[in-house]
Amino acid sequence: MSAVPKVSRSAVIAVAIFLVAHLALLLGLSTPEKFVFDEVHYVPAARQMLTPAMSQPMLNPMHPPLGKELIAASIAAFGDNAFGWRYPATLFGALAVVAIYLCGLALFSAQGPAIAAALITASNQMLYVQARIAMLDIFALGFGLLATAAFMHGFRRERPHALFALAGGLFGCAAACKWSGLFPLAVCIMVLGVIRLMQGWHTLFADAKPSDWYRPDLWPGFRVQHAALCFALLPALTYPAAFVPLYGLSLPDLVEAQRRIFADNTTTAIAGHTYMSAWPSWPLLARPVWFLFDKTAEDSVAAIVFLGNPLVLWPALLALAVVLRDFIVARRWDAFLIAAFYFGPWLAWALLPRTLGFIYYYLPAATAASLALVYVLRRDGLPRWLLWAYVGIAAAGFAALLPISAAFVGSSMRTFGRLMLFQSWI
């Protein structure tokens, strides 16, 4: 009987988090009314999808279509304007915050830390900026984090089948927005593979504890065929469904679309880009991306700089060191999952042959870093108020950077110069 009120309370809180986050992201969404950064690629591709007979060549074939289809649906509903282009991003930004709350419930088994994780995530400029622009990354993030939350909730269950199946389907949707949505799916497959391999070897920890990330009795009824269904077949079914509105059921066209995506995303970039950066520099926030910089008056600018909140992402590096230590030394399952879903989506970029990279590729890992901060700040022996004091500090950092994160807020040149702390940020 007690489980029902608990589930209901969690659902109510999740809905409340979604509504507050969504409304906050909507403020000033239409400013500016022109294209911002890569909207110049994705909005025309979405418009093309709305034409009665889609013209050729297809615009932006280097990414799967689901994110662009969501933008197209919003344009059809709200008009071909800045609000219509960007509205779906706000929905998925709010869903990403909710997903971190759900991950927190799975990891910490308490409402307070889960809510704190959602608040820290919402205070990270990376998510805020990406959730207010018509690009594809926020769609892959929203689907991917919801899938990750399902996986985390199933991880400690005796019968994780339904939750793992849900995760697999959502990962397929994430990949249908952008292929980087496959990275957290690969993390899940690796986690399952390592645990099943150790179980096959009959591995035992001499001082086994309930909090161990590995147990020989984990998922007793979850067989190889179940894993294949959840993490191979279901993603393979949901992913191509996004292509049906474009190609119908034509298998040759579907295969050719994948060949083109692969070719475009594995080609080594020849020319550099003003804001390009390498994956090792992303956690340090060494090179942000200027999405927008417009002078609106003699001493006023409208600026959107993709830059994470330093008061979140720099302390997160220390928290992640503690997480790694607890995973390796204490074998804690919660530390193991946080480390896996931070380092996996980040380090995957080190394996790709492309040399052209941007700090917004770090968004999934940066969002998972919020869980590491909460993990450390709720450790035994620390006062309970410390976590909430830090939430306040993160919010203060977010407020300080808002003039360069939202064009509708605006900034003086002097304030903008003060917020550009390092030469590499300019």
Describe this structure in words.
With 426 residues, the chain is mainly alpha-helical. Helix content is 61%, strand content 4%. It has 17 helices and three strands. It has helices at 3-26, 39-49, 66-78, 82-108, 111-122, 125-130, 137-155, 161-175, 182-200, 224-241, 244-247, 251-265, 310-330, 333-347, 363-377, 384-401, 413-419, and strands spanning 289-297, 300-306, 411-412. It has a three-stranded antiparallel β-sheet with strand order 1-2-3.
Number of helices: 17
- What is the beta-strand fraction? under 5%
The CA-CA distance between the termini, in Å, is 58 Å
Neighbour order of strands in the largest sheet:
1-2-3
Rg, nearest Å:
22 Å
Tell me how many strands there are: 3
Order of SSEs? HHHHHHHHHHHHEEHHHHEH
The residue-averaged pLDDT reads: 93
The biggest beta sheet reads: 3 strands, antiparallel
Low-pLDDT regions? none
What helical percentage do the residues reach? Answer: 55-70%
Q: Which overall shape is indicated by the principal axes computed on the Cα atoms? A: globular
Based on helices, strands and strand pairing, what is the structural class?
mainly alpha
Give structural attributes:
3 strands; 426 residues; single chain; 4% strand; mainly alpha; three-stranded antiparallel β-sheet
Would you spell out the secondary-structure blueprint of this structure?
Elements: H1 3-26, H2 39-49, H3 66-78, H4 82-108, H5 111-122, H6 125-130, H7 137-155, H8 161-175, H9 182-200, H10 224-241, H11 244-247, H12 251-265, E1 289-297, E2 300-306, H13 310-330, H14 333-347, H15 363-377, H16 384-401, E3 411-412, H17 413-419
Antiparallel strand pairs: 1-2, 2-3
